[in-house]
Give the backbone structure.
Amino acid sequence: YNGQRVVTLKDIDRVHGKKSDTARKSFRKYKKHFILGEDYFEITRKELGERYSPNEKIIGNPNMKTYLLTESGYLM
């Protein structure tokens, strides 16, 4: 995303074998320590779907924010 490798919070849970929403809860708790545009990006589900999965139907609220962590954000 914007020339950087990113992962979703769902990806992080999957890779580490954690329960769904574990990374999201931790991210929200410590979000104040992350820098928008450097450690993470904030996009809508609609934008994510249009950019990366244009043929898939968006489930749920298309205006809900999705967080994409950069390498520096993931390592934090």
